[in-house]
Amino acid sequence: MKQFMLAAATLAVSMSAPAAGLDDVKTVYVLPMSNGLDQYLAAQLTSGSVLQVVTDPQKADAVLTDHLGQSFEEALAGLYSNKPAPSEKAADKTEDTGATYARSGMQGQRGRGNVFLVNRKTHDVLWSFYESPGDKTPNGMRRTASKISAKLAQSIKGK
Fold first, then answer.
1. Can you tell me the distance from the alpha carbon of 136 to that of 9, in angstroms, rounded to the nearest whole number?
2. Helices 138-157 and 37-47 meet at what angle, rounded to 10?
């Protein structure tokens, strides 16, 4: 009986605690996403005070993206490395600031509905969520972004 109570208490604590690393994330850089979801997410995250969205990737604790893999790694290399990105397809360089801004490998493709919050230094996925992309209208994208933002806020708060 004691083992059952201990297991139940452990489960209750683990369900209420934020996911590892999420409590350290205060600022996020949102990579471009298919169908402009990044813009809707940035608005939802800031208006809901979930996370501070930054336009300078150097100030971010984490990166929010709709894809992982080689193009994502190349985008991060372009954003956070002094070396040139391995592929010019992965980044655009601006003339006046010298900053590098990522371009998603998903541009022009149908989004698959996955969103990932990635630690910018370790590249660990701290949080992920799937929301079916469904309606691509502005109202549909706003609803999708609202659901994603609410789930992230819930995970950060540990509920």
1. 43
2. 50
Contacts 24+ apart (CB under 8 A), 67-74: 67/104, 67/105, 67/106, 67/112, 67/114, 67/116, 68/116, 68/118, 68/125, 69/105, 70/105, 71/104, 71/105, 72/31, 72/105, 72/118, 73/123
Contacts of 93 (CB under 8 A, 6+ apart): 99, 100
The DSSP element (H or E) to which 148 belongs, if any, is helix 138-157
Is residue 31 within 8 A of residue 25, CB to CB? The reply is: no
In whole angstroms, give the CA distance from residue 90 to residue 111: 18
pTM of the full structure: 0.70
Q: What is the pLDDT of residues 43-85, one digit of tens each?
A: 999 998 999 999 999 999 999 999 999 988 998 898 887 554 4
What residues contact 136, with CB distance under 8 A and at least 6 apart? 35
* Tokens standing for residue 128: 């992920």
**d(C-alpha 127, C-alpha 60), whole Å:** 16
